[in-house]
Amino acid sequence: MSDLPSPPALKRPPQHVPMSQFAQQDGELLIGGQPLTRLAARVGQTPFYAYDRQLLKARVAQLRAALPASVKLHYAMKANPMPAVVAWMAGLVDGIDVASAGELKVALDAGADPAEVSFAGPGKRDIELAQAVAAGVLINVESARELAPLAAASARLGLPARVAVRVNPDFELKGSGMRMGGGPKQFGVDAEAVPELLREIGRLGLAFEGFHLFAGSQNLRAESICEAQQKSYELALSLAAHAPAPVKFLNLGGGFGIPYFPGEGLLDLAPIAANLLQLADRAARELPHASLVIELGRYLVGEAGVYVTRVVDRKLSRGQVYLVTDGGLNHHLSASGNFGQVLRKNYPVSLVKAKGPQGGPTEQATVVGPLCTPLDLLADRMELPVAAEGDLVVIFQSGAYGASASPAGFLSHPNCVEVLV
Ligand SMILES: *Cc1c(COP(=O)(O)O)cnc(C)c1O
């Protein structure tokens, strides 16, 4: 026994959560059960995105098991609008949320039931509103301006215009990566203006079906999500008193986040499930015609996807190793840190050698894409196996806000490919 003070504990820097959703074989990552190098050969090019259908299915099953059975689960397809993904998701969830006429087309092509499709988004053009009425989907009204064209389309087509009111609440989703409600916003109708809007909906004879509230995105704090859902419910309940018809759909938003950066953990579903159970009980009494809906994008698809790009050059600049790859922010803006992040941090990244064995000695390397801008950064000084030309760099947590959220035309490189495996 020594009475010397023990040395200060070595502080381990924050780590990424392990990407254990993907299995490995002989040290090589498997996507959709296939070794990555073989999948790359099958795709025939890099860069590409690959989404794992079994992981998508497992995620939906995990949510269904946790959440009350009466809560409807919608997929907000702007997170990943690849038609094959939307078709797969349409078979798993209760409804699809679209944000443009283009997304509406993909959802309907995918076989989504129009009765369970909703259409939100600011600046809906008259033609989009008319397309939505003709399709028979629920339109989340974001502005009083939308009412007249909806009534006109309804009269012209001889079809009801199914509407819900998207409310801009008087609170924000605390701790969310991207706030989309509270204060002045382009989204939804300010809560205080909703009673008058509801009267106008009644006067015009539109088919009122409910409310939509969406406070924000990418939240990893269950308490904040519960609080937002609780407040959203209260607000909708008070507004329901002014509604021209019973509430059929009460969309409480989502905002469930996934861990992207070192130090971030998995969202704890248990408190959210408990809170929703309590709200579902209340709704059964207070809004007896209403289904509670939650709409999720990245939580459903984000962890099931990877972006794969190939090392074109390994260069050394004043002691720093650079792996220059054939794709970067032109395909994956969010991994480069330029999609709304305040401080750039690394996504989880791994290296797969073109020729085995995998693993081996590591070094600190910076992974950059081929664009002539310092913003084209995929991994900043990460410890990776020593890489050679031809090896594959894998960016995890890439199933949401990837290809469709990136400036593919910037610098005129070839497009990436997307596969669902
Ligand atoms: C973007 C968006 C979503 C999806 O957000 P995620 O963070 O991907 O879950 C859901 N609802 C609305 C209204 C949105 O605009």
Automatic annotation (TrEMBL):
Keyword terms: Lyase, Pyridoxal phosphate
Pfam families from the UniProt entry: Orn_Arg_deC_N (PF02784), Orn_DAP_Arg_deC (PF00278)
Species this chain originates from: Roseateles oligotrophus
Name recorded for this polypeptide: Diaminopimelate decarboxylase
Positions of the Orn/DAP/Arg decarboxylase 2 N-terminal domain: 56-301
InterPro entries membership: Ala_racemase/Decarboxylase_C, DCO2ase_PEP1, De-COase2_C, De-COase2_CS, De-COase2_N, Orn/DAP/Arg_de-COase, PLP-binding_barrel
PANTHER family in the record: DIAMINOPIMELATE DECARBOXYLASE, GROUP IV DECARBOXYLASE
Domain Orn/DAP/Arg decarboxylase 2 C-terminal: from-to ranges: 48-399
Modified residues (N6-(pyridoxal phosphate)lysine): K78
Family (UniProt): Belongs to the Orn/Lys/Arg decarboxylase class-II family.
GO MF terms held by the record: diaminopimelate decarboxylase activity
EC number assigned by the record: 4.1.1.20
GO biological process: lysine biosynthetic process via diaminopimelate
Active site (UniProt): C372 (proton donor)
Keyword DNA-binding among UniProt keywords: no
Reported cofactor(s): pyridoxal 5'-phosphate
